[in-house]
Amino acid sequence: LTVMGDASMEQTISPPDSTAQQDSFFSMMDVFLISLITGLLTYWFFFRKKKEEVPDLPKMQSVAAPVRDSSFIEKMKKTGRNIVVFYGSQTGTAEEFANRLSKDAHRYGLRGMAADPEEYDLSDLSRLSEIDKSLAVFCMATYGEGDPTDNAQDFYDWLQEADADLSGLRFAVFGLGNKTYEHFNAMGKYVDKRLEELGAQRIFELGLGDDDGNLEEDFITWREQFWPAVCEHFGVEATGEESSIRQYELVVHTDVNMNKVYTGEMGRLKSYENQKPPFDAKNPFLAQVTENRKLNEGGERHLMHLELDISNSKIRYESGDHVAVYPANDSSLVNQIGEILGMDLDTIMSLNNLDEESNKKHPFPCPTSYRTALTYYLDITNPPRTNVLYELAQYATDAGEQERLRKMASSAAEGKALYLSWVVEARRNILAILQDMPSLRPPIDHLCELLPRLQARYYSIASSSKVHPNAIHICAVTVEYETKTGRLNKGVATNWLKNKVPDENGSTSLVPMYVRKSQFRLPFKPSTPVIMIGPGTGIAPFIGFIQERAWLKQQGKEVGETVLYYGCRREREDYLYREELARFHQEGVLTQLNVAFSRDQAEKVYVQHLLKKNKENIWKLINEGNAHIYVCGDARNMARDVQNTFYEIVAEFGNMSQPQAVDYVKKLMTKGRYSLDVWS
């Protein structure tokens, strides 16, 4: 801009100079006439110039040309694909299922590709019929309270607004959900229903996977009926047995610049050394742990409070948001895998996609070492899925072990039962499987290709940014249990966080993190009463809520009733934030503090029992005070029991039937007056 300014000044200055030179030769009239002619010529010149440029305007449409590059239709045509499997995935499972379905296609003389809806223009679905024997499959996970996953949000928005004609589109949907949640498989159900409304043809029934049961079995059962339906529709047959097809090829780097090797970064190389905002899932911020203290005074469990320093990160958060942290696997597990496979884990390698057209060039950041991959990028602690067992079976030299692996990966009832008992219920991870099958020694690169990505873990933030703008607090309990095989399994993230002790130089206490926005929000008006129900670590977001209400009160705002229902096992053992809650109660910020100690007496007392005890006051707050209700914690039992209690209270004091009371509570949810932040 400075250069342009300077140039225009020079042009402005030059006409007076030339006029001064001509004054000696011409009269004022001549000067006037020449100036007029010059002005007209100049005006005509620029006017004509603009007119000449008008025909070039259509060229501006070329700006939209790159959209064609993001057109999955063009890509499918170019690579000879006829099946596209879109995935809405938050934790990687839907993506994994999509990859498995796209690989299946070759068995039927078809070619598939897995696709992230975030990377493509989904309005192109109307053009899919341009491709012979084409089909779109959607593996859609539901996140939170019936929400789409982050990568499917744009697709969801488009579906809601679209009036496209999808009459030529053939589709099928498999949903991934959890029955303990109120809106079970909401996203899968919506996509299935909406595509049909837009004229698309469903070629196989909606699949509903339940992660509270056996998601893997649900998927396999659906898949084994889905492919025969595809064959019947297109008039094709299976070309033979399922075969193992490698998706990536191994490249070992013997002479590599170590500055170009990934050491745990999620996206940009050296992003942990050279941090640049904005911070998100692909560019986490390295926050230093400034406090890590044990919250409980006794018992077998370890409950902890951590504080992460987010100074200078430009990260903003609201009370009720979630903090995502990227953990690391236990080094002893990583070392044992290296030993059992006889590999030097510090070998630098890359796994390169054999499909050059794929957007996904590597299964994880490459080049890197096996040690880094097994520590930061791969999930080595969860029981492997059946497709992993199938692919690994070929490497078992003992016929009995090979047969056992193939059986567990099959769709036969006996195989499913064996997989459920030997892998899922016994909680055998990949190391345990290698230990219990001595002849199974796969190449480490194939194992790295097959294992799913290690996912970020989400925690409800236990602080208010109004009070702690430069810190994020976490409340968590370490997961540790003995399996049926006598092994001690430890939760990846909680045990990793437990060891993040603040030190002087801070190098060992860094946590890669980012913030995920939530709908779990305090009412817009501070004067609105709130009823908070959160036993155990479900107290976390409410510590932030109470801090914020206290801050608002200090600012002179009128703050409504702030009511807490909290529960723990024993008063002297795991009463979390006892001192803080007592202080807030004493100061009058927390108008009611109701605590259920489940194991301090013969009969167990839970939060729902205290709600029933104070039912009249609860109804008054809801009915007259327009109170907002918040529930945080266990989805399987607590959240359901609490909801049933609200049905009872509403029915009794609102003089309603049970169905009317249920409808009343559901309407509170729709209006944002009954919010859940639960997990199973």
TrEMBL record:
What keywords are annotated for this sequence in UniProt? Endoplasmic reticulum, FAD, Flavoprotein, FMN, Membrane, NADP, Oxidoreductase, Transmembrane, Transmembrane helix
The UniProt entry, under InterPro entries, shows: CysJ-like_FAD-binding, FAD-bd_FR_type, Flavdoxin-like, Flavodoxin/NO_synth, Flavoprot_Pyr_Nucl_cyt_Rdtase, Flavoprotein-like_sf, FNR_nucleotide-bd, NADPH_Cyt_P450_Rdtase_alpha
Q: Which residues form the FAD-binding FR-type domain?
A: 282-523
Q: Which residues cross the membrane?
A: 25-46
Cofactor annotation? FAD; FMN
| Record Pfam families | FAD_binding_1, Flavodoxin_1, NAD_binding_1
Q: For this protein, what is any one GO molecular function term?
A: NADPH-hemoprotein reductase activity
Biological processes annotated in GO: response to hormone
A GO CC term assigned to this protein in UniProt: cytosol
Q: Where is the Flavodoxin-like domain?
A: 83-227
Its Enzyme Commission number(s) read: 1.6.2.4
Instruction: State the name under which the record lists this protein.
Output: NADPH--hemoprotein reductase
